[in-house]
């Protein structure tokens, strides 16, 4: 097992990419803390994989701190963090986005990474290092129109990743980001800005050379590699998992 003996905290893990990551981490031998705003969903996943569940809002410092503290108390430490929780508004005219939507997307996608970095750093150091992974997006590498402010959040976390990788290297903490192309999640229709029908989906598939959307398994496999010892010399990477869209 590739993650045997490691402890991971995955946010937004009650569904979608986060659930896929949590399940694969457990399958690879890790003890997994499943964190989500949807506590009932987090408990369901945690029960099925033998993990621990934590509820909370990743844009609130107290909630993030409780997730980290609870993980350490439940499993004795922390080796891997996956900042997966995210949000978007409906694709459309960027000047039609409300201030409330703007604040929410930046709080959920950007502020959460800052809060997690502050809370998790001491726990990772205490284990002699670890892996700090953020689920970014191809939107931060090759943005589509209509999601300008969302794209900006992913650009921000990409820069965070590259900068923290340099700062935290002295503590043997590797910092990387996975950048999926649009996937099959609860946010698919919002990203598309229209109903997720076969006809509408085809417009997006036409821009992906390998001809399909990303899946939780695709993202989970990348996250396993970035967390395991075989990638111990990999840090500061923005890894596209995109079927060739950014090539």
**Number of DSSP strands?**
7
Mean pLDDT: 94
Uncertain ranges: none
User: How does the major sheet shape up?
Assistant: 7 strands, parallel
Terminus-to-terminus distance: 32 Å
Question: Which secondary-structure class do the elements indicate?
Answer: alpha/beta
- The tally of structural domains comes to 1
Overall morphology: globular
- CATH C-level label: Alpha Beta
Task: Please list the strands of the largest sheet in the order they lie side by side.
Answer: 3-2-1-4-5-6-7
Share of residues in strands: 5-15%
> Looking at CATH, which topology would you report?
Rossmann fold
- What CATH architecture would you give? 3-Layer(aba) Sandwich
Q: Which radius of gyration do the C-alpha atoms yield?
A: 17 Å
* Number of continuous helical runs: 8
Helix content: 40-55%
* H/E topology pattern: EHEHEHEHEHEHHHE
Tell me the CATH superfamily.
NAD(P)-binding Rossmann-like Domain
Characterization of the model:
By secondary structure, this protein is α/β, with parallel strands linked by helices. It has a single domain (7-182, 215-233), classed as Rossmann fold (3-Layer(aba) Sandwich). Helices cover 45% and strands 15% of the residues. It contains eight helices and seven strands. The protein has helices at residues 16-27, 39-49, 61-75, 99-126, 148-168, 188-192, 198-205, 216-227; strands at residues 7-11, 31-36, 52-55, 80-83, 130-135, 173-180, 238-241. The chain has a seven-stranded parallel β-sheet with strand order 3-2-1-4-5-6-7, sandwiched between helices. Helix 1 (16-27) links the parallel strand 1 and strand 2. The radius of gyration is 17 Å and the shape is globular. The mean pLDDT is 94.
């Amino acid at each position: 097992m590739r993650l045997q003996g490691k402890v991971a905290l995955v946010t937004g893990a009650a569904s979608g990419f986060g659930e896929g990551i949590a399940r694969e981490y457990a399958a690879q031998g890790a003890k997994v803390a499943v964190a989500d705003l949807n506590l009932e969903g987090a408990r369901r996943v945690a029960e099925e994989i033998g993990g621990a569940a934590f509820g909370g809002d990743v844009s609130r410092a107290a909630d993030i701190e409780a997730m980290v503290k609870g993980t350490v108390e439940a499993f004795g430490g922390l080796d891997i963090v996956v900042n997966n929780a995210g949000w978007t508004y409906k694709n459309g005219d960027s000047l039609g986005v409300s201030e409330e939507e703007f604040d929410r997307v930046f709080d959920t996608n950007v502020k959460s990474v800052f809060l997690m970095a502050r809370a998790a750093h001491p726990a990772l150091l205490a284990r002699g290092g670890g892996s700090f992974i953020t689920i970014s997006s191809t939107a931060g590498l090759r943005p589509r129109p209509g999601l300008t402010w969302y794209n900006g959040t992913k650009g921000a976390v990409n820069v965070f990743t590259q900068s923290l990788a340099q700062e935290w290297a002295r503590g043997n903490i590797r910092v990387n980001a996975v950048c999926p192309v649009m996937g099959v999640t609860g946010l698919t229709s919002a990203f598309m800005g229209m109903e997720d029908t076969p006809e509408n989906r085809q417009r997006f598939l036409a821009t992906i050379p390998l001809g399909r959307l990303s899946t939780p398994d695709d993202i989970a496999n990348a996250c396993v590699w970035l967390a395991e010892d075989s990638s111990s010399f990999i840090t500061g990477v923005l890894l596209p998992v995109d079927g060739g869209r950014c090539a």
